[in-house]
Amino acid sequence: MIHPIYDDPLLWLRPFPAEPRNLLEKHWHEIAISFIFYQVLYYLSAPICAYIFGSHYTHEISKKQRINFDIHVVALVQSFISILLTLPLFKDPMWKEDPIFGHTPFSNLVSALTAGYFIWDSIVCIQHFKMFGLGFLLHAFAALYVFMMAFKPFCQPWIPAYLIFELSTPFVNINWFIARLPDGYVSTKFTVINGLLLMVTFFSVRIVWGLYAVVQTFADYWPIRDQVPGWLALPIFALNLLLDVLNMYWFYKMVLIAKKKFKKSKSNDEKLKKSK
What we know:
Blueprint: H1 23-53, H2 55-58, H3 63-89, H4 94-97, H5 105-127, H6 129-149, H7 159-163, H8 169-179, H9 188-221, H10 230-275
Helix pairs in contact: 1-3, 1-5, 3-5, 3-8, 5-6, 6-10, 8-9, 9-10
């Protein structure tokens, strides 16, 4: 009997096939539901932003910037959903029992919902390539590939170890909004606290924990490597390492921005002292 927390409440919504031959056929509808949900949320983001940010959003920024605001609203919501979906998986016994091939209805659901988001994210990164660049597109493609391969099944028990990266994403998105709002719109104290939480969580979960997770996943895979095709396993580990490198690069850029802001703040304080 499956514990209720590891069941799949959306499984009954599958219109076809009646007898799926594999996990992807069994959960394809959840990928579609997820994609549609995020697309609808994207359409709703414009009125949400107009309500929250007022005339700054509706009149003071360009159409391109408004699109960016809308996309970041979707990313913010997705990060909270991912965090909530991740927490039950950390207590899933299959992590110890079968860390490579293990799966439950709930872990399949999480894989499907996450894959749906990254399909949406990949399309957005292609549509607005000039806005987001190659780094974000590679991130979207890599994440999509990893979560689609989870339906083989492969490394589903390790999903929470990688989805927990999203713990830093709310702070990333809030910081992004703050940087694009007028001075004084958000208090300095709130900005500083959010910035510190961003740096701490990003470094902790995406770099320190991220590297540890890749090494430990590989350690679980190595003893049974003969049971897994090389074309399946090696690209996934390579892509996870690529994501770790991207996270290091983004953290490096965060540090540079933080140093620049600190120097600017220090310079302004010195000017104020001299003027007194």
